[in-house]
Design goal:
Elements: H1 3-15, H2 17-32, H3 35-100, H4 103-111, H5 114-128, E1 132-137, E2 142-147, E3 154-156, H6 159-166, E4 172-179, E5 184-195, E6 201-210, H7 213-219, E7 228-230, E8 236-239
Antiparallel strand pairs: 1-2, 1-6, 3-4, 4-5, 5-6, 7-8
Length: about 240
């Protein structure tokens, strides 16, 4: 044996004495096995290696497939819910326009008869299941403000929608309601201008539905679906998971 080769082998054996010793013991143990076992063991090792690779590959495939199905299911459910929400907005817009175009509402607003206006709008609030009806004059001053008790002592951030309605527009939007305790709620509102016979804007009417647990459940088609509504700062406003109202 060349001196260099002998030197390398001696160095490796000295640097890895435990590995060399373990390898010698394994070889000795393997050589003592019956011939049938020595023949089958390599095949068993290959078989188990293939099985492990197959199981890991299947797990990755199954996980990827489930993730894809869940994403498709969520996207499909979200599309249905958005369509339901759009229908709710359109219905709200139709009703507020019908109220704004009533001749008696127009006449009573011009006469500044709040009690007569109250009698008309209370029935609309009850029949339509509304949480809010608000009427303002052409200057934006509040003439009538009917709210459910849960919206009392709260500030409705509807200046933009009211201004748009006084400008002749028919806005449909979701506005925030800030309570004194700092709690935030959301209201789906529809606003319409009230015009005189000469088509002059003399005020505006706004109706709204509180976006709460019951409202969200009415949008869900399946019992195993849940909805969570976030505010602009990404805090949860209402969720069907925890039964918020």
């Amino acid at each position: 044996m060349p001196l260099f080769s002998f030197f390398n082998q001696s160095t490796e054996q000295q640097s890895n004495p435990q590995i060399v010793g373990r390898g010698v013991r394994l070889q000795a143990s393997y050589s003592k096995l019956p011939l049938s076992q020595r023949i089958i063991m390599p095949f068993m090792l290959v078989f188990f290696s293939i099985m492990v690779v197959a199981v890991i590959s299947f797990a990755f495939w199954f996980t990827s497939r489930m993730e894809h199905q869940i994403k498709n299911s969520v996207a499909s459910g979200a599309a249905v819910i958005l369509q339901e929400l759009q229908t709710e907005k359109q219905d709200l817009g139709s009703w507020v326009q019908l109220i704004a175009e009533r001749n008696d509402v127009r006449t009573i607003l011009q006469q500044k008869d709040t009690q007569a206006l109250l009698k008309i709008l209370v029935s609309h609030k009850t029949n339509l299941g509304l949480d809010l009806i608000k009427v303002v004059n052409q200057n934006g001053g509040v003439v009538l403000d009917l709210r459910e008790p849960r919206l009392n002592e709260s500030h409705l951030e509807d200046r933009t929608t009211i201004s748009q309605a006084l400008g002749g527009m028919y806005p449909l939007d979701v506005v925030s309601v800030e309570k004194q305790r700092g709690q935030t709620q959301l209201v789906l509102v529809g606003t319409a201008p009230i015009k005189s016979n000469e088509e002059e804007v003399i005020g505006a009417v706004e109706i709204g539905i509180l976006i709460n647990n019951e409202f969200l459940k009415s949008l869900i088609a399946a019992k195993d679906e849940y909805l969570i509504v976030f505010n602009k700062d990404k805090t949860v406003v209402v969720s069907t998971l925890r039964g918020d109202s």
